[in-house]
Task: inverse folding
C-alpha cells in the first residue's frame, strides 16, 4: 500500500507550506539583490508587471551577477510583448500565493503546475512548459527503472506536486516528506529513504550541491501536468499574457529559451502542435 510519513524538519529548515511548485531547492541559495515586495500599493504601477519568483536554478537564479533562468526569460518576453516593464520580486516559496492574493505581485513565474485545487483560487496562463518527474538515487542503488521503485521508500518535498503524484501513481511505496530538497538528500544519506522524487528541472542543481554522490536513473514527462504563470482570478491581463506566450512559441523564441535550459527534455506534443 501507499504509506505516507511526515518527517519533522530540523532546526533552520523552512517547510514549503501549501506550495504546489514542482521541485524544490537546496538550502542557502545564491544571494540576490532582487527587490522585495513590501506593500500592496507597489504591486502594479506605471506599466510595471511585478513577477513573484523564488531562487531556484534553472527557473530563476543569478550567475556572476547576471540574472538567468527559463521562467525569468519567459516572463521578460511576456512583459515585453505586453508593453510593460518586468520587475522580479524574490520571496520564499510559501509567500508567493499569499502575495499574489494580496496584490503585492501581479504574476507568479516559478514552474507552477496547474492543478484543480489551485484553479479554485487563481487563474493560469496558457502553458509554457510541462511537468517532468525525476528520481534521484545514490550511486550504489539497485533502482534503474520505474518498476524498481515499487516497495521502496521515496522522499519528497512536502507540499509539492510530486507528493500528490506519487500518491496517485505509485501504490506499493512508502512516502516520506521532507521540508526541502537538502533534507530529502540527507534522508537518503542516512538510509531513511531509497530515492528522492523531484522536479526534473532542478536535478542538476541538487546533484551539484548534494553532500553524497547521486545519479538520475529515471526521468519522464508527467501526463496532463501543464506549467503556467499564475495570476489573480479574473485578471483582465490574462488574454494578453496568453497571446504573448502563444506568439513566443510560434516565433521560435520559446524553443530557443527552452533549449538553453532544458535541452535533455523531449518536446511535448502540445508545443509541437503549436508549431514550436
Result:
Amino acid at each position: 500500500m501507499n504509506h505516507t510519513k511526515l518527517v519533522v524538519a530540523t532546526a533552520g529548515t523552512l517547510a514549503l507550506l501549501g506550495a504546489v511548485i514542482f521541485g524544490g531547492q537546496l538550502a542557502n541559495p545564491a544571494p540576490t539583490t532582487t527587490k522585495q515586495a513590501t506593500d500592496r500599493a507597489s504591486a502594479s504601477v506605471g506599466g510595471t508587471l511585478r513577477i513573484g519568483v523564488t531562487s531556484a536554478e534553472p527557473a530563476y537564479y543569478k550567475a556572476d551577477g547576471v540574472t538567468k533562468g527559463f521562467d525569468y526569460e519567459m516572463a521578460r518576453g511576456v512583459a515585453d510583448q505586453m508593453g510593460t516593464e518586468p520587475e522580479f520580486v524574490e520571496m520564499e516559496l510559501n509567500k508567493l500565493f499569499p502575495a499574489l492574493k494580496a496584490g503585492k505581485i501581479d504574476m507568479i513565474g516559478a514552474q507552477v503546475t496547474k492543478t484543480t485545487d489551485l484553479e479554485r483560487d487563481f487563474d493560469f496562463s496558457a502553458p509554457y512548459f510541462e511537468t517532468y518527474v525525476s528520481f534521484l538515487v545514490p550511486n550504489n542503488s539497485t533502482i534503474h527503472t520505474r518498476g524498481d521503485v515499487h516497495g521502496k521508500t521515496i522522499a519528497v518535498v512536502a507540499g509539492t506536486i510530486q507528493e500528490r503524484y506519487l500518491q496517485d501513481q505509485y501504490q506499493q511505496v512508502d512516502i516520506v516528506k521532507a521540508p526541502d530538497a537538502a533534507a530529502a538528500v540527507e534522508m537518503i544519506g542516512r538510509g531513511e529513504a531509497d530515492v528522492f522524487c523531484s522536479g526534473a528541472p532542478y536535478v542538476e542543481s541538487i546533484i551539484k550541491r548534494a553532500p553524497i554522490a547521486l545519479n538520475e536513473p529515471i526521468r519522464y514527462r508527467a501526463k496532463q501536468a501543464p506549467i503556467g504563470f499564475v495570476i489573480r482570478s479574473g485578471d483582465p491581463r490574462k488574454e494578453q499574457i496568453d497571446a504573448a506566450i502563444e506568439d513566443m512559441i510560434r516565433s521560435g523564441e520559446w524553443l530557443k529559451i527552452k533549449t538553453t535550459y532544458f535541452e535533455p527534455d523531449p518536446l511535448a506534443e502540445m508545443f509541437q502542435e503549436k508549431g514550436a
